[in-house]
Write a structure and sequence with these properties.
Elements lengths: L12 H22 L5 H7 L12 H23 L3 H22 L3 H23 L3 H27 L2
Helix pairs in contact: 1-3, 1-4, 3-6, 4-5, 5-6
């Protein structure tokens, strides 16, 4: 049963500190994904890529926006139902998100990175399904992320095949 969009389970300062916490968790996941991975734009440029591959400068702005949406979506669900199965799924997809960059860029394991991004895509899908039971707004905020990961998976597969 969906509750009213304007009936949060928490109120006051606690909810705003929680938003900061969700943003921090997403930032940490993004930072962990980039730890020890230097020169990704150069590595990306050196790979054989399909003609539809975006330029490396596009990834920073896109991921910044997506990470903000991921954080707010998690926070919105937390406000409505607390730490529930939906947020366990949100956490799992975030961990998988953090793993992909080191696999692809740090280890150069394009095939393993593709398998991992497929699992991440499924985890995002589960998160979308569970969020849909709680908040349409939070669900909508995850859809651009899911779409981008769909595109990234296709790009990963193409790069893997072109560079094997």
């Amino acid at each position: 049963m969906e509750r009213s969009q304007d009936a949060p389970t928490t109120s006051g300062r606690r909810q705003w500190w929680a938003l900061v916490g969700f943003a921090a968790v997403v930032f940490v996941a993004a930072a962990i994904g980039g730890l020890g991975v230097q020169g990704t734009p150069d590595e990306y440029a050196s790979l054989r890529q399909p003609g539809w591959a975006p330029p490396s400068w596009l990834f920073g702005p896109v991921w910044s926006l997506l990470y903000a949406l991921i954080a707010v979506a998690g926070w919105l669900v937390w406000r409505r139902v607390g730490f529930s199965p939906a947020l366990w799924a949100w956490s799992a997809q975030l961990v998988l998100n953090a793993i992909w960059t080191p696999l692809f860029f740090g280890a150069g394991q394009y095939g393993l990175a593709f398998a991992e991004i497929v699992v991440m895509w499924l985890a995002i899908g589960l998160t979308v399904v569970l969020f849909a039971r709680v908040s349409r707004v939070a669900t909508a905020q995850l859809l651009p992320y899911w779409a981008w990961v769909t595109f990234a998976a296709a790009l990963n597969l193409s790069i893997w095949r072109l560079n094997s």
